[in-house]
Amino acid sequence: MKILFTGGGTGGHFYPIIAIAQEIRNIAYEKKLLEPSFYFMSIDPYNPKVLAENKITFISAKAGKIRRYFSLSNFIDPFKSLFGIGQAILKIYTIYPDVVFSKGGFASIPALWAAKILKIPVIVHESDSKPGRANLWAGKFAEKIAVSYPEAVDYFPKDKTAVTGNPIRKEIKFPIIEGAREFLELKEELPILLILGGSQGAVKINDTIIDLLPELTKRYQIVHQTGKNNFTDAESRSKVVLEGTGRDHRYKPFSYLNDLATRMSAGACDLIISRAGSTIFEIASWSKPSIIIPIPEDISHDQRSNAFTYARFGACVVIEENNLSSSVLLSEIDRLFKNPELLEEMKTGATKFARPDSARLIAEALVDISLKHEQ
Q1: pLDDT tens, 253-300?
Q2: Which of 121, 123, 127 is nearest to 16 (CA)?
Q3: For residues 370 and 375, what is the distance between their CA atoms, to the nearest angstrom?
Q4: Where are the domains of the chain?
Q5: Which of 122, 159, 250, 284 would be a feasible disulfide site paired with 221, CB 3.0-4.6 Å?
Q6: Can you point out the beta strands (E) in 215-300?
């Protein structure tokens, strides 16, 4: 059983692939199948360490980005894509996988074209409520389509589309509660806010939190994933705004939260402030209330829609970035903590939205198609 994964170079594409690969190995073990061979084709390996840990072979293929704005690169990238498709056809032909699984994004186009030309079955997964162009195209010839949001079904052929949720790696699926506050060096008496701006951070959210620290630290403790590029700035500014307050120990900035720190932070926190990417599914799996601040629609076509879909489950409140200010965010945080019943309702909403079986459902479909292709 040989399976080739492909997708764009973001954590939102990469880590669900890892979750699915883990589940396929579980299924192979349970059914006493031969150990599967996994490949990942993209413009870069994203996280070589995680690929190695999961025995996934990286195969590079160039891909040109399709931009929604004017750029000189728009004249160059089509040739890059054509070259990448040629690369993909040759490289995929040599391994000839039983099935190709795509998470979408421009980096998936070469592998998808190769699969189409070589007549290899394709399964696609769409993480967002409004599908990207790569998956919309691939959905026309894919054997099966999995979507995270019910709204996305309308964009694909209904007879081969299923709502599966978004796969989450086992390493971060379940929060750690016992010992979490001690791990983070935080006290029991105050609630904890967890700020997640994505692996790269979110400058607008970071700036708003830093400005609010003198007020927030009066009644809350904060765990803040700033993003690697923003950490030094956030750390230095926080020291300035908290100087003389005696409350600097209540603010814990991190450039990046590794798997253990993520689970500890999820277990300890009482409210999460986040963007509206794939992190929504992690928050839901942790059954945590949240304030979701989507990337503006003119920058990201999907996050606003994701946020309001999640809000309809009663799992979060949404603050659009254009409306984000220190006073608005502080008011919303205080309002939620003054209403414990609402926080409990949001936890229930998050649990209803979560799909803990997502990786398993997709893995079973991939195994099924792979075994048929082998025959």
Answers
A1: 999 999 999 999 999 999 999 999 889 999 999 999 999 999 887 777
A2: 127
A3: 9
A4: 2-166+356-374, 172-353
A5: 250
A6: 221-225, 251-254, 271-274, 290-292
CATH entry, 2-166+356-374, from 3.40.50.2000, 3.40.190.10, 2.10.70.10, 3.10.20.30: 3.40.50.2000
* Pairwise CA distance, residues 108 & 43, whole Å: 9
Per DSSP (E only), the strands in 200-263 are: 221-225, 251-254
Token pair of 356 as six digits: 């803990």
Between CA 262 and CA 271, with CA 268 as vertex, the angle to 5 degrees is 90
What pLDDT digit, counting tens, does each position of 77-114 carry?
Answer: 666 778 889 999 999 999 999 999 999 999 999 999 99
Phi, psi (degrees; rounded to nearest 5) at 212:
-90, -10
Domain boundaries 172-353, corresponding CATH code: 3.40.50.2000
**For 232-239, which contacts have Cβ atoms below 8 Å and span 24 or more sequence positions?**
233/206, 234/206, 234/210, 237/210, 238/210, 238/213
